[in-house]
Design brief:
- With 178 residues, this protein is an alpha+beta fold.
- It contains 3 helices and 9 strands; from the N terminus they run E-E-H-E-H-E-H-E-E-E-E-E.
- The strands form 3 sheets. The chain has a 5-stranded mixed beta sheet. Strands 5-6 form a two-stranded antiparallel ribbon.
């Protein structure tokens, strides 16, 4: 994936940050197997290797998956299970990523059960004015960053800046106390 420029890993004093643009499964899910079987496994291995350094990890970016039902505006539509980013395989692989690497979805940690919060809207369908979107952009962080700052850094908030326009995505982020 280096040739595609999809991942930037930065080691800071208090943590390691991985920013990624995850491959989309594509039209007709032509890249689904590569996405789930190759990309996800490689990223899980990369994050696992970073965890061995003893520092907490933050994994963020356009992760191209809507993990939970609340992350999909029309979750009951029949095409959802056959659309890039919302297939059962992608959603399950994302859950495995969280569990294996002891990562927490920071937005859901602070806004459990919140609905109507998306980070992507189809431009082609003109969905943004109607907030018909998906949450495809995430900030994930090591569980231990939510425990009161024992590492000298703590996640204290997570947000989606949906008021920003100019792209089919909007910024997401976290607030750290150091």
């Amino acid at each position: 994936f280096d040739a595609e420029g999809r991942v930037l890993t930065t080691e800071l004093e208090s943590c390691v940050v991985v920013n990624a643009y995850v491959p989309n499964s594509g039209a007709d899910l032509k890249r689904l197997d590569d996405r789930v079987d190759v990309w996800e496994r490689a990223m899980r291995k990369h994050i696992s290797s970073l965890r061995t350094r003893g520092k907490p990890v933050i994994y963020c970016g356009d992760l191209n998956v809507a993990h939970r039902d609340e992350d999909i505006w029309n979750v009951t539509a029949s095409h959802i299970k056959k659309s890039a980013g919302t297939t059962p395989q992608e959603r399950e692989a994302f859950g495995v990523m969280l569990e294996e690497n002891k990562l927490v979805d920071a937005f859901r940690f602070f806004h459990e059960g919140a609905t109507g919060w998306f980070s992507y809207w189809s431009v082609r369908a003109g969905n943004r004015p109607f907030n018909k979107g998906l949450r495809l952009d995430y900030t994930l962080a090591s569980r231990r960053l939510f425990d009161g700052g024992s590492d000298g850094v703590e996640v204290v908030d997570a947000f989606i800046l949906d008021e920003y326009q100019g792209s089919d995505h909007c910024p997401v982020g976290i607030t750290l106390a150091v």
